[in-house]
Amino acid sequence: xxxxxxxxxxxxxxxxxxxxxxxxxxxxxxxxxxxxxxxxxxxxxxxxxxxxxxxxxxxxxxxxxxxxxxxxxxxxxxxxxxxxxxxxxxxxxxxxxxxxxxxxxxxxxxxxxxxxxxxxxxxxxxxxxxxxxxxxxxxxxxxxxxxxxxxxxxxxxxxxxxxxxxxxxxxxxxxxxxxxxxxxxxxxxxxxxxxxxxxxxxxxxxxxxxxxxxxxxxxxxxxxxxxxxxxxxxxxxxxxxxxxxxxxxxxxxxxxxxxxxxxxxxxxxxxxxxxxxxxxxxxxxxxxxxxxxxxxxxxxxxxxxxxxxxxxxxxxxxxxxxxxxxxxxxxxxxxxxxxxxxxxxxxxxxxxxxxxxxxxxxxxxxxxxxxxxxxxxxxxxxxxxxxxxxxxxxxxxxxxxxxxxxxxxxxxxxxx
Length: 416
Hints:
CATH topology of the largest domain: Outer membrane efflux proteins (OEP)
Structural class: alpha+beta
Strand content: 5-15%
Number of helices: 8
């Protein structure tokens, strides 16, 4: 292999291995591959089809028909074989505003479905962020246990030398060895949790293979404080969708009332009469005819069916009004909970940051004192545990603050 090919291959391998999936890309992939969103897109398309169906009611209808008859004993005015070809154009002139209301309802249903789709998008984005952050948290936990194991391993190696020199009791050496074994077990479990959380993220991304991809870390500098004054839930898509559904039910009242009004239809038809099935013309008599007509019909009584339908619709309106009130209560609870969780997470993050700084400083001091023979092996073990716990608390507090902020934004439907 020449030098050029080797260089090209090396660049390709480096490019492949260095690729990292970031959060924005993960969200984009999830929105494209989410099956619930795909179904919601189909529902939107179906609502558009329903609108087109409703619009067809405002167009005239064209019918073409042909009839043929054979009479074995015709009268003097009849033929043995005869046929009639009829073309009819009809148009509804009035039906109690039913068609207009049905079109309005179809448009309201479309807007409602679009709002539900928007709500599902916000939920999907938050689910991606939760899974993404969970993976990063598991990865940080693994890294923390890895450092802990290395520190215990080094402490064990140093303690073994001291034991062989007669400067350390065997019990102290065994204590370090036990802690080193526990740290290795924690590291093994953490590695398994990393793989599981990566698979969970893959599922949310529609099954995307992440086995050979690294996950980019979050930028801590972007975790700014968020102002939450005067924020309400009035812009929530679910609430807007329910209000549109209520408006559609009120429109349906007009549709149901149309049953109590007369119907007026106009039509124009042209008929051609033939002597036989071969479209032979009549020798005598009328061979074609045009008819224009207006028909008025009015149902006087249909067994109280229309009244019952109106009663059912009114009950549906009351049910939906109750659902809107319940949804408002739930959304307000979500908002207040998200606000409080965010404030708590901010305070925890500040405390965890200080605790980690203190744990790092404490470990460095104890380590130096241990090397000088001033601190005991137990002191160093405790300092190691405190440092590990401090790191884990810090990462958890950071991710909790991030998720609580993103949850608050989702509740308020604020786009990043």
